[in-house]
Design brief:
about 450 residues; Rossmann fold; Helicase, Ruva Protein, domain 3; 4 domains; 19 helices; about 15% strand
Length: about 450
């Protein structure tokens, strides 16, 4: 098996020697360069598997070399060696496309972890085949391209977008296409953890640290060691915990509650929220220094109403999943049903579309779902169609028959809605908050529907 090669760019002989010894023990070959120009010449003659460059070099700084490699040798991951405390330089390197950074004095374990991950980067990430990121709109194509690019880096990424657009799916794709794909992916909803327990959940605790701490607990940072940690709804973190998260990101180590010692962590950090973090910073609800550290690269996941041309493909995919989970025949949407969906604004995005289709499957006894089977979140009744609007001019006999049909339909819908709500409540152990979230509706809306159907007790 051919040995992999690392290009070392530094003008300090002691650093070069330390790097060469460390990498040799990892069975890696090395090449030396003491300036940017020498590094460029070596890159033209052979392509290394990784480049490690110092920030300060005799003929410029490492950022220049990173930019050169990104444009001329994009398949080569490059990592920056910076002086301790040079946060701005490290962030700038990551924004330019650096894989990661390591600080002086060199911590060899962190260096070995960095090199190990960098050498596992997939050379070709064009096979983004996740069925979850459905669509051919320009916005989705651009999102896929951005995911491919950032997957190669270890830069902290902040994913923002409305509820239900697929932020966690985006995070999972970044993980699966990156060098940590064989390691754990852990997602935690920061807003769902009681404020007094957030620090313990993230960083762990020692036995006896507080009442109820009967055993040592490692925490989610350590549980995700070697892999990726997604902090979903990161804007909901209490300010005191934000301070400790900032240190964990900067120092790549955590201190469990009740412990005097810090533990090194090897985690790629992703974050997400539906809130505007910039506004949260201006309002004093989120630390600006933490904001700049976790938002090195930002990814926006578009709302469904911004890419309506993807609705037919999404609906087809979701119906297939529903058919499998419900044990039903494959279903399709009528042209009228598709047209109706295309007219709707989907405030709940893809999650709402999934719930609408789930109700349609439950209500329809046909292989094809009609427009009359579609019930939107706010009303849970089929929207008025042109045919229904035309009934204003019909005679009394026809109106009487229509009212009977409507009554029968409303009764059928009420029974179906009751069944859906009872199943959801049972599945969530009658926790109304969890049930509302599972159905993709507000708690207030759920409470109104339970009262309307006599299920509030």
């Amino acid at each position: 098996m051919t040995q992999q090669t690392v290009l070392l760019v530094d003008d300090e002989p002691d650093i070069l020697q330390l790097l060469e010894i460390t990498l040799a023990r990892m069975n890696l070959q090395t090449q030396r360069a003491t300036s940017i120009e020498e590094a460029k010449r070596l890159l033209e003659s052979s392509t290394p598997d990784l480049c490690l460059t110092d920030m300060k070099l005799p003929d410029g700084n490492g950022l220049t070399l990173i930019d050169h490699i990104q444009h001329r040798h994009p398949s080569v991951p490059v990592a920056m060696i910076t002086a301790h405390g040079s946060v701005e330089s490290a962030i700038e390197a990551l924004k330019l496309g650096a894989f990661d950074f390591v600080t002086k004095p060199l911590a060899l374990e962190k260096l070995r972890n960095l090199v190990g991950h960098a050498l596992q980067i997939k050379k070709d990430t064009d096979d983004l085949t996740s069925e979850e990121l459905i669509g051919q709109s320009e916005l989705v194509v651009a999102l896929r391209d951005q995911i491919r690019r950032v997957a190669r880096s270890q830069a902290p990424i902040h994913i923002h977008g409305e509820s239900g657009v697929g932020k966690e799916i985006t995070a999972r794709l970044i993980h699966s296409l990156g060098p940590r794909s064989n390691q754990p992916f852990i997602a935690v909803n920061c807003g769902a953890i009681p404020p007094e327990l957030v620090e313990s959940e993230l960083f762990g605790h020692k036995k006896g640290a507080f009442t109820g701490a009967t055993v040592d607990k490692p925490g989610l940072f350590l549980a995700a060691s070697g892999g990726t940690l997604l902090l979903d709804e990161v804007a909901d973190l209490p300010l005191p915990v934000q301070v400790k998260l900032l240190r964990a990101v900067q120092e790549k180590s955590v201190r469990p509650v009740g412990s005097e010692a810090e533990i090194p962590v090897d985690v790629r950090l992703l974050s997400a929220t539906h809130k505007n973090l910039g506004q949260q910073v201006r309002a004093g609800a989120f630390r600006d220094d933490l904001y700049y550290r976790i938002n090195v690269i930002g990814i926006h996941v578009p709302a469904l109403r911004e890419r309506k041309e993807d609705i037919p493909l999404l609906a087809e995919f979701l119906l297939k999943k529903l058919a499998v989970s419900h044990g039903t025949d494959k279903r399709a949407l009528s042209e009228e049903a598709i047209s109706l969906l295309l007219q709707y604004q989907f405030p709940g995005n893809i999650r709402e579309l999934d719930n609408i289709l789930a109700r349609a499957v439950a209500m329809s006894d046909r292989a094809e779902i009609a427009a009359s089977d579609i019930a939107f979140e706010e009303t849970l009744t089929p929207p008025q169609t042109q045919a229904a609007a035309a009934t204003a001019d019909i005679g009394p006999d026809q109106r009487s028959l229509l009212e009977k049909v409507r009554g029968d339909l409303e009764g059928f819908l009420a029974d179906t809605e009751r069944q859906i709500l009872e199943e959801a409540l049972t599945k969530n152990r009658w926790n109304k908050t969890a049930t509302a979230k599972a159905l993709g509706i507000t708690f207030r809306s759920l409470r109104y529907r339970l009262k309307k159907l006599g299920l509030d007790d």
